[in-house]
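Quick log. Single chain, no ligands specified.
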Amino acid sequence: MPPRGPTILALTVLLGVSAVAVGSTSGPDDAASLRGPRAEPSVSAEPPVSTPAAEDTAESDIRAARPARLAAPARPIRIPGASLFGWALLDRLSGAMAGSPNSGRVVNTVESMIKPWIAADYLRRLADGRSPAADVLNELARMIVDSNDPAAEKYYQIGGGDAVVRRLIEVCRLSRVSIEPTKWSQTEMTPQAAARYGACLADGRAAGSTWTPWVLDTMKKVRGEVSDQISGAVQGGRWGIIDGLPADLADEVSIKNGWTSYLDGWHVNCLALHRDWSLAVMLRMPSLRSAARACEDVARALVVDG
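-> predicted structure:
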């Protein structure tokens, strides 16, 4: 949220008038700036008295300066028109999992949401800590940034096909994940498993300490709108959860969505990673645009101030 201006508390005392300034914020993460310098009050026979209204305003300013976070909403989240809907929010600090009542049971095909794993698995398994050639790294980047299907298939095969998904289950310690032989996009998992997969990408297990920063930074560069489905090699995927977050929070988030049209509608998954949490939303909707808005709505419902 934008910083609020300083609040001036006028204090009238017996020997004169002195002003005490409540320090203005220099940024949501700078807690010390909330205290700020204070002017010494004039000597008085009685302590200065603040009005209740002034105290309320000062407290409001402090609350507004705290950074936004995500937390489970008081009321269930409902998405009209969804034939399948579930979400899960993993607190990476405490390990607590929140989500829809079905978040540990309902499954969806992962689609392109698995692509960061395919890249991370390849990078982690490089022999002797070798760096990939520049053209290889560019292919892996395009797999994530443009959701490039041919690149995903290439590195899925290089990694051993179904063995890539088996390592996902093992390394990330996932349950309720099923493998569709030879088809990475049709791996199925629950929202809770997807949130744990996100945490696995973020904490270094997926890509290892050397390549995890690269994977997370590349996920921040995902580009293209819902309408930018140009080809299997260039698909727009920057929408969903990130659109429902405040700008300062969105800047810290890595994302990867997955989407494909089936006879029963669009299978869509939205994944977002933050240093404090991992959020996954899974849906089946009549259109990609409606699913993107649904992911956005879920994120907005979870945002709380400070």
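Residues 172 and 200 are 6 Å apart (CA to CA).
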